[in-house]
Amino acid sequence: MGDDDGVKQYEDPLMGPVNKSKSGASHNGNSGSKNWSVIAAVILVLVLGALGYFLFQSQQRLEELSLRLETSQQKLGDVSENLQTSQGEIVGLQKVLKDSQSQLGAQGDELGRYKKLYSDIRSDQAEQGEKLQAIAVRKADQEEVNELQQAAAGLRTGLGEVQTGLGDVSDRLSETSGQVGELRDVADSNSKGVQANRDNLGNLQTAVDANSSEIGGVKKSLDRDYYNFELQKKGSSMQIRNVSLRLRNTDFKRQRYHVEIVVSGRKMNKKRVNINEPIYFYVKGLRKPYEVLVNRVGKKFVVGFLSVPKT
Questions:
Q1: Which value, to the nearest 10 degrees, does the dihedral of the CA atoms of residues 278, 254, 140, 136 take?
Q2: Do 301 and 287 touch, CB atoms closer than 8 A?
Q3: DSSP one-letter string for 95-130
Q4: pLDDT tens, 272-282?
Q5: What distance in Å separates the CA atoms of residue 225 and residue 227, rounded to the nearest whole number?
Q6: What are the E-state strand segments in the chain?
Q7: Residues with Cβ < 8 Å from 305, sequence gap 6 or more?
Q8: C-beta atoms surrounding 262 within 10 Å
Q9: What is the pTM of this model?
């Protein structure tokens, strides 16, 4: 027992390190295994974390794509609805276009009728101008009739004087019956001449009355009222209904004139107007125009008419 205890207590200096080396190696092997386990666990945690993060990012990306898809589908629905609305509007526009084309054709026909009506009105105005010129000529004939009447009055006065002289001659030449007879023949001849002049005057007066009746009928047959006027150069204004006319100047050589027209407080100066050239102007409240036309231009006067639409 003592020997065994002695042996146990004895340590071989050479063997001691060998036994210690084996024990240390075993201890180091266990430590390495533990380190590799930790590293593997850490790597696994990192991989799992990265995988989780990737899955999280993928889920968010998937949600974003799903939201975009839903938005795109909604936009596609809106576009489809807008397309249907646009198709309805196109159909409506096509109908409006068709109606507009129909209205355009109707307006074209109406424009043609208005052009024809305007041409007819111009023809009527030309015809009225000719009639008014004839009226002016008849007015001149009336002036000649007045001159003939004055001449007839002079003849009557001359006849009275002849008759008075005839009485004196009859008293003085009572002895010569032949000469008295001749004087009576002369007196009878003069009387016949006076009677013939009276007959001519009666015929002229009848013609004037007939012309006046004809003119009155022409005026009544028209849809306008006519007012004749004669304006003197440098004269005062002439008021015809609600229109004031004043002659400012005349150009007898070129047959033109300058007139001032005042209506409804509005003054118009018409310069260098040619003869038979109508002047149109509108009065408030009427759809048809007034018309001023001069058919005779003298050196110091003009003659024409004012045409007013009947109301």
A1: -10
A2: no
A3: HHHHHHHHHHHHHHHHHHHHHHHHHHHHHHHHHHHH
A4: 999 999 999 99
A5: 7
A6: 224-232, 238-240, 243-251, 256-263, 266-274, 279-281, 290-297, 301-309
A7: 132, 226, 227, 228, 229, 292, 293, 295
A8: 15
A9: 0.32
